[in-house]
Design goal:
Number of strands: 20
Strand content: 25-35%
Shape: globular
Distance between the termini: 26 Å
Largest sheet: 8 strands, mixed
CATH architecture of the largest domain: Alpha-Beta Complex
Number of helices: 13
């Protein structure tokens, strides 16, 4: 390759693309190199028998602040989920929804047999506080684990175990709820303020939309990086000399390129995709297991929210299990028969997607949820391990890293 440019961005995931967008907007010469043959990193979509199969169950929250800087979500043609959850408890399916977004479901939620009325009122107060208080106050509150924060809010064991643990374990990919209470506050804030949806063309449409304004000739795919040093990036195609390097790859790869980085523990999960001739539910709503069986974190009929996820006459169901061990598909199918309360014998198992490094663990202390992105000597790092473990965290970290690069280049 033998090139020279002001900034080299390593990694074409959300963080790297956000960094490229900010540098491009500032008129700074840059180049992005990506080891794989596509953009998007952990956000990807495959097509199997006409079904859109994301690389694990992922959704987009319209309240993520950084999204508006980078794209108009209207161009994604989002299909939305119900702002709530179904809980399987014995023979009953209990429906709990956000009464602000689903006012007709308010009375049913108040009477739902999960925890007590006081639980629901206390949780509503907790979520309302997260949605309305300034972020600075939320991040200044005493920090603890998510589980401890929920118990300190006065929520009963039944409410936590039958609803919040299965629901939040799918959000954080953390069955123990050891995730920082400050991450919990930001998640509750985004759920209360935004809507949850899927792009009509799959989650891969998100990175492609972010990358759309970037010149294609500055995006080098299939270009693995062998070594990073101040002022130089060594690829299989040759060296690139530069003034700054932004390493925006997953934490294990980042640690390999930047050995001074602390090791980041990663959470893993597995998503099972099934196709059915009839939907087991007609509503686009997440279903969790309130029976404390601790196997399935959640299951949902994706095509109820986004019909484009399945071909005509079929319906796509995604079921996620938290942890490194993936049970056999027949075990999951048996659980789904119980959870949905109907036979799954005519379902087709399309694929099982294991994501061994899905999200960075974020136990306390996380502080202000913003770790340094400037490492010195023109080296910078980006990714959701530098902010909150989420799409928002990845985009924000890339934007922050680019800002730090611009500050250094201007100072130099």
């Amino acid at each position: 390759m033998g090139a020279e440019v002001d900034v080299v961005i390593i990694g074409g995931g959300l963080a790297g693309l956000a960094a490229a967008r900010r540098l491009h907007r500032a008129g700074v010469p840059w180049r992005l190199v990506e080891a794989s043959g596509r953009l998007g990193g952990r956000v990807a979509t495959d097509v199997i028998d006409g079904h859109l199969i994301d690389r694990g169950f992922q959704v987009l929250n319209t309240a993520y602040p950084r999204l508006g800087t980078l794209l108009d979500t209207g161009q994604l043609n989002l299909g939305y989920f119900t702002s709530g959850v179904l809980v399987r408890k014995g023979d009953n399916l209990l429906r709990l929804v956000n009464p602000v977004r689903e006012p007709t479901g308010g009375p049913g939620t108040a009477l739902a047999g999960v925890g007590s009325l006081f639980d629901r009122l206390r949780f509503a107060a907790l979520a309302t506080g997260c949605a309305t208080l300034p972020t600075s106050r939320l991040l200044a509150a005493p920090e603890t684990s998510t589980e401890t924060a929920l118990r300190r809010a006065g929520l009963s064991d039944a409410f936590i175990e039958e609803l919040l643990r299965p629901f939040l374990s799918g959000v954080f990919i953390d069955r123990e709820l050891s995730t920082s209470s400050r991450v919990l506050a930001m998640v509750l804030r985004s759920f209360a303020r935004g809507r949850i949806g899927l792009p009509a063309e799959g989650m891969a449409a998100l990175p492609l939309a972010i990358a759309a304004p970037l010149p294609a000739d500055l995006l080098d795919l299939d270009t693995p990086v062998a070594e990073v040093a101040p002022g130089r990036v060594r690829t299989q195609a040759g060296d690139i000399r530069c003034r700054a390097v932004v390493v925006a790859v997953d934490p294990p790869a980042a640690s390999a390129l930047l050995p001074t980085l602390a090791t980041v523990r990663m959470h893993s999960y597995t998503t099972y995709y099934h196709s059915a001739p009839e939907p087991p539910l007609t509503e686009p709503i997440l279903l969790v297991d309130g029976g404390r069986r601790e196997l399935v974190a959640n299951t949902v009929v994706l095509s109820n929210a986004a019909p484009t996820y399945a071909p005509t006459g079929r319906h796509l169901i995604a079921t996620s299990v938290v942890g490194p061990t993936a049970p056999p598909e027949p075990t999951i199918r048996a659980e789904l028969t119980r959870l949905y309360g109907r036979s799954t014998a005519d379902w087709t198992h399309l694929t099982t997607v294991a994501v061994p490094e899905a999200l960075p663990a974020a136990p306390p202390p996380q502080g202000q949820l913003r770790k340094p992105v400037a490492l010195g000597e023109g080296l910078f790092v980006a990714g959701d391990h530098r902010d909150s473990p989420s799409i928002q965290g990845a985009l924000t970290s890339g934007w922050r890293a680019a800002g730090a690069v611009l500050d250094e280049l201007r100072a130099g």
